[in-house]
């Protein structure tokens, strides 16, 4: 008989969303809040923005907590876990969403820039997952969902280190999924295409129009659409989906 792990209603679960003060992360938090889950909103510096997301989540009936940590630091993540433990909050679902973009010629990349992009986009996934997965393993149920990028699959000119970091997230997800599957914990990556967020705010109207023309769907995606996929992967009935890199991109990459 297959052990599907603990029986727990989605509304009774706890989710930790990193980088949840804006954009896709904020919408993911709101999506989980809409079913009354315990929602932990992580941020690094955007205190007021995180509180605003928290207020919206509470309006939806969720129990909410905001936590600040530099995810490049194992010590800070450990302290964040201790704080959550003291409030009886142990994430059943971890959404590794925190990330930073980098655009520029590879020949101009400094070692410090490489380190920062790798630390925020990839090392943080390693550290957060390693610290929060033991609880999931012990209860034989858990969901680890890593927000990646279409560039981690196909690569992008002038976004070499960002593409490399997100490619690492994809490979990490595939490999760890095999390791944790016997424990009832799934690991998947969501690799969005072009989405209307702060990361696309630097493009002017003409640049956005050219991007939209390349996308068969004829438009950019919305953070809400990405959040919907993340939510689906977190459901108890999605337990047979693991080790996958799913790219919602409007047909841009097939």
Head-to-tail CA distance between termini: 36 Å
Do you know the CATH architecture?
A: 3-Layer(aba) Sandwich
Sheet of most strands: 7 strands, parallel
CATH superfamily: NAD(P)-binding Rossmann-like Domain
The main sheet orders its strands as: 3-2-1-4-5-6-7
Describe the structure in brief.
It contains eight helices and seven strands. By secondary structure, the protein is of the alpha/beta class. It has a single domain (10-246), classed as Rossmann fold (3-Layer(aba) Sandwich).
Describe the structure.
By secondary structure, the protein is an alpha/beta fold. It has one domain: NAD(P)-binding Rossmann-like Domain (Rossmann fold, 3-Layer(aba) Sandwich). The chain contains eight helices and seven strands; from the N terminus they run E-H-E-H-E-H-E-H-E-H-H-E-H-H-E. A seven-stranded parallel beta sheet has the order 3-2-1-4-5-6-7, with helices on both faces. Strand 4, helix 4 and strand 5 form a beta-alpha-beta unit. Helix 4 runs parallel beside helix 6.
Summary tags:
globular, 3-oxoacyl-[acyl-carrier-protein] reductase (NADPH) activity, oxidoreductase, seven-stranded parallel beta sheet, 44% helix, Rossmann fold, Sc_DH/Rdtase_CS, 8 helices, 254 residues
